Amino acid sequence: MTQAPTPTADTVRRLVRSLLKDGTSDAGGPEVRPVAESGQTTWWVGTRHVLRLAADREATTRRRRELRLRELVRPHVPVAVPTSVAQGEWAPGLAYTLDTKVPGGSAEEHDVSAVGEADLAGLLTGLREVPVRQAEALGVPRVAPRSLEALRREAGRAAEVLRAADEFDPARLQQLTSPAAVQLAAQPGGAVLVHHALTGEHLVISADGRVRGVLDWTGTVVGDPAEDIAGLALSVGSPAAVRAATLAGYGARPCLRGLWLARCDTAIRLAAGLEGRAPEPLPLLRTRLRRAWEAILLERVTELRDEETDDAEL
Predict the structure, then answer these.
(1) How far is CA 29 from the centre of its chain?
(2) CA 137 to chain centre
(3) Phi and psi (nearest 5°) for 38?
(4) pLDDT category, 27, cuts 50, 70, 90?
(5) Which backbone phi and psi does 210 adopt, to 5 degrees?
(6) Interatomic CA distance for residues 221 and 203, integer angstroms
(7) Helices 226-236, 252-274: inter-axial angle, 10-degree rounding
(8) What is the DSSP letter of 81?
(9) How would DSSP label each residue in 113-149?
């Protein structure tokens, strides 16, 4: 197999210089710099554009599918979806897309306000309204719901690693019993379009706490909506995630399922990080663990229990 080339600043500068011919750049070309968390695959181009490069053929397939998926999603959601101003191949068989930058910061930089939670509710509602058949016709894969019981067992093993490092009390996981994990299984026929990566770097938040856009639709699937609730728990905290999901019309089961997906995932990822098996930095993994394990208001806990899930605990 031919080794894929590694993009450099010169590679990116030559490419964007050929694309941006509107007089906005000087003779040396626009300033380009890699987005820190993406390695060499995503680059800031000046102040108005983002260049995203596929590193292999599989990523190229996802990148090209994403362009069509954005147009399908855009009319259904109340937040911005990136717009491509140019697309093509930056190397043989490897795609690129040059997008306009969505103004704002990330959820790592800004807290989401109450109005921002309503924006997130609109996002979840819109994703549920996207026609699943049309998404699958674009090549969006259908993914089966994960087993919460299997995840609970894996998280239990991870919690012992965290206990030894004085990072986490495994007793907290005992709230998720085996019967509760079974009770919170995803319901048949509930598959919707799922962004599947609603982490902080993919949510564009303004200084006033509004959600202005959602980035990176390459991992989108048809599947369990609790996965996006879990993503929000990591990025904006469990209380805000539950409030947004409730505003979007989701009941107790998907809310609780999403919280436990997030809580188990963050324990597993932090343990992997402590053992050198996770690419994310440890401070980010610790922040996500803290957000996922934030307690929601007692009144909401009672409401969720009374509504559907007497055996489940938060």
Answers:
(1) 32
(2) 22
(3) -105, 0
(4) low
(5) -80, 150
(6) 18
(7) 60
(8) -
(9) -HHHHHHHHHHHHHHHHS-HHHHHHTTPPB-PPP-HH
Give residue for tokens 């292999």.
Answer: 56
Kindly report the length of the chain: 314
Positive or negative torsion for Cα 229, 249, 194, 192: positive
Alpha-carbon radius of gyration of the chain:
20
Closest C-alpha to 288, from 240, 231, 244: 231
CB atoms within 10 A of CB 145: 18
What does the pLDDT look like over 164-200, one tens digit per residue?
Answer: 999 999 999 999 999 999 999 998 899 999 999 999 9
Task: Give the type of residue at 232.
Answer: L
Q: What is the pLDDT of residues 246-257, one digit of tens each?
A: 999 999 999 999
Rounded CA-CA distance 209/226 in Å is: 23
For every residue of 242-262, DSSP letters joined together read HHHHHHTT--HHHHHHHHHHH
3-state secondary structure 15-76: HHHHHCCCCCCCCCCCCEEECHHHCCCEEEECCCEEEEECCCHHHHHHHHHHHHHHHHHHHH
Return contacts of 275-283, CB within 8 angstroms, 24+ apart: 275/161
Q: Are 293 and 172 in contact (CB under 8 A)?
A: yes
Strands 42-45 and 32-34: antiparallel
* Cα separation, 25 vs 157, whole angstroms: 53
213 contacts 82 by C-beta, under 8 angstroms: yes
> Does the pLDDT of residue 3 top 90, yes or no?
no
Structure tokens at 267: 């324990």
Note the pLDDT of residue 28: 60
